[in-house]
Fold this sequence. Notes:
Elements: E1 4-8, H1 14-24, E2 31-33, H2 39-52, E3 57-58, H3 63-74, E4 77-83, H4 86-90, H5 94-102, E5 106-109, E6 113-119, E7 128-129, H6 137-144, E8 153-156, H7 163-176, E9 180-183, E10 186-189, E11 199-201, H8 206-219, E12 220-224, H9 238-244, E13 248-252, E14 255-259, E15 269-271, H10 279-287, E16 290-296, H11 308-318, E17 322-326, E18 329-335, E19 343-346, H12 352-363, E20 367-370
Parallel strand pairs: 1-12, 2-11, 3-4, 7-8, 15-16, 19-20
Antiparallel strand pairs: 4-6, 5-6, 8-10, 9-10, 12-14, 13-14, 16-18, 17-18
Amino acid sequence: MxxxxxxxxxxxxxxxxxxxxLVRSYFPTLQIVGNSACDDVRLMKLAVAAFIQxxxxxxxxxxxxxxxxxxxxxxxxxxxxxxxxERLFSRPQEDLIFLLGQLGADCDLRIDSLIVxxxxxxxPLVPIRVHRDKSSQFASSLLLNSWELPFDLDFxxxxxxxxxxxxMTVDMIRDLGLRLDRENDxxxxxxxxxxxxxxxxxxxxxxxxxxxxxxxxxxxxxxxTNATEKSLQPDFxxxxxxxxxxxxVSWDQRTLIIEKPEEDLKAIDVxxxxxxxxxxVLAVLCAFAKGESILSGAPHLIYKESNRLxxxxxxxxxxxxxxxxxxxxxxxxxxGSQVKxxxxxxxxxxxxxxxxxxxxxxxxxxxxDVLNSQVVTKSFP
Length: 381
C-alpha cells in the first residue's frame, strides 16, 4: 500500500463558479472571489465571452455549460449555435428543449450542436413546467437566467434528483438579492430584479476535496488549508460520512484534517439522492471498509458523464470485490485491510469521477492502468 499526504488549498467549486459566471454575464461589475483552472470553468468563461461577442459557443463535454448557456442565449434576440462533442449531445437534453420551447425559443437539436433562435423569453400563458427526474440543472439554469425579466416568472416543479444542487442555486441567488417565492410546487420570481450584492466569495470545491480526503482516510493524512465549516454545496456531507466510517476528522482553525484510522474503516448505509457526485469515490471507500455497505437514492447516476452505476460496479468487480448494482445504487461487501492486490485496467469512459475512483484503488496497492487519466482536468487539474 502507498502512503498519502496532502497539504494545501483546493480550487474554487466549479459548480458555484459556473453559476457566478452566468450571473456576471448580466451584471459585469459583479466581483467573484475565487478561481479554478478546471475544464468546466475554462469552458464556461469562454462560452460567456463567445455569447457576448455573438460567436459560436463551444460547450466541449460540459453539460452544465450547455444547459446554462442555452437559456442565456434565448434571453437575447438572434440565432445562437452551441456546439460540443457528440457524447455531450447524446446525454438527455429533451428537458432542455422542452423548457426553451415554453419560453418561446425555437430549437434545432443536432448530433453535435444546438441551434437556438429567439427574440427573448416570452411570457407563457400558464406556469412553466420544469422536469427534474434526470437533472436539477434545467431548473437552476431557469432561475440563474431570471434577472431583469420584463414579466413575472412563474414555474411549477415537483421535487426531483440532486435536491442539494437546486438548494445551492436558490441560496446563491438569494444571497445576491433575488426575491423568490414558493408555495408547494409553485415558484414565483418578480420581474425586473437586479443584484444587490456585488461581491461573491466562493468556497473550495468539496466534490473534488472528497477525493483527496478519501485518499487520506485510506492511506495517510490530508490538510485542507482553505476549508470552511459551513457550505452551500451538498457534497460537504462527505465530512459526516467519513466520520461515520471511522476516519479521524479534526479542525485547526480553517484547516480541515483527515487521517487514516488505526482500525479498518466501517461500512455505511448512505442515501446519495442529493450528492450523486460522491458515489464513485465513496464506493471504493466502502470496498476497503469492513462489512456490508449500501449506497442508494441515486438512479440518475446513469445520466452522468458516464453511466456511473455501471462503471463503478465494473471497477469494483474487476478489483475482486463483491458489488451488486441496484436500480438506485450499490450493495458492497468490503474487504477491510485484507487486500488481494491485482492488475486492474480501467476505462473511465471519459468520466473524471471514475478516474478519481480508480486512483484510490491504485493507492491501496493494486496495479491500475487508467485509460485517458487526464480526464480529471474536467473538475480537478
